[in-house]
Amino acid sequence: MRDEKKTITFIINPISGTHAKEEIPRLIDESIDDQRLNHRVVYTEYASHAAELAHNEVELGTDVVVAVGGDGTVNEVARSLVHTQTALGIVPCGSGNGLARHLCLPLDIKKAIQVINACNIECFDYGIINGLPFFCTCGMGFDAFISLKFAEAGKRGPITYVENVLREGLKYKPETYIVVDETGTQRYKAFLIACANASQYGNNAYIAPGATMKDGEMDVIIMEPFDALDAPQIAADLFMKTLGNNSKIKTFRTKTLHVHRSAPGAIHYDGDPIMTGADIDVSIEHLGLRIVTNPIITEDQAQPNFLLNAFSDFFNNINNVREDIQDDISKRSRRIQVLNKLMLRKLSKL
């Protein structure tokens, strides 16, 4: 006796990310396993429409709802699926694709649909910041500030993000945070505080290389104030999965976190910014979301590169001798600022 076909709904955000979506319905029709799956395609028409459509699919008892878009679309769909029997599928078409990259999902559309065909479903954690669900990362400080700038820029993609980082990075003033977790209270002066359920922001920028979405905890990353000489190493560590080696980074894991800052300001959840109060609460919901995963490679198999760890250690050891060259710091800082401005001008012409 054959199993009953599963029902799959693809929710396409036609304006998200950097990829055109016109060909996706045809690719779905050509690639979907219609012997095992009944599918249909719907489109979002306005902000938060994906969340409404996904909620309706839950009410209908749909087996899998596939978010076709960027991290914002994935967040909208996923928030309607938590603690239900309806699983999240992802066809990544965004500028960052943080959750898809963490889960080792293909960025090629046809290959991503093949993963949907396999319909291998597992349970994963998700997070909540001030009542808002997140699935990859959330945070406050510089990354939330840049998320605001990114949202205001009017165009997407890594070049826009880098432009904002270069323009604002050396001007941004660190804040003082009072941080409370299960172990007690600490006070930090920090450039940013990130809470990671998954390992990366997107674009293979690994804010928490060791994070897993199944342990019931978040990785908390506190980036202490740094100067222009530290910036290149921090940037390199982000992309080499070696941020934990950096002397400017403090990390710990916790189930819940309370943060107090001196004034209201921005936070972000999966890159979407919002203004909120001085007090911020973050928690993890353990195994609260079902996700269609890659049957060939999983998050458990995406191990750090030990050669890159050694490379990062070497450069961090070099940084330890910086006390001997303090008289030269201001001159080098001015030079790096000039280089950043030149790089920014070149990027703006692309």
Description:
The chain contains ten helices and 16 strands. Helix 1 packs across helix 5 (109-118), helix 2 (49-60) packs parallel to helix 3 and helix 8 (231-240) packs antiparallel against helix 9 (306-319). The strands form three sheets. Strands 6-5-16-13-8-9 form a six-stranded antiparallel sheet. A six-stranded antiparallel sheet has the order 12-11-10-7-14-15. A hairpin with a 2-residue loop joins strand 8 (175-181) and strand 9. It is α+β, with helices and mostly antiparallel strands and 350 residues long. Helices cover 32% and strands 30% of the residues.
Fill in the keyword field for this structure:
six-stranded antiparallel beta sheet, 350 residues, alpha+beta, globular, 30% strand, single chain, 32% helix
What is the compact description of this entry?
The chain is α+β, with helices and mostly antiparallel strands.
Q: What is the average of the pLDDT values?
A: 84
Summing up helix and strand content along with how strands pair, one would put the structural category as alpha+beta
Output the helix-strand order: EHEHEHEHHEEEHHEEEEHEEEEEHH
Helical stretch tally: 10
How do the strands line up in the largest sheet? Answer: 6-5-16-13-8-9
Radius of gyration: 21 Å
Overall form: globular
Low-confidence stretches: 303-327
What is the percentage of strand-forming residues? Answer: 25-35%
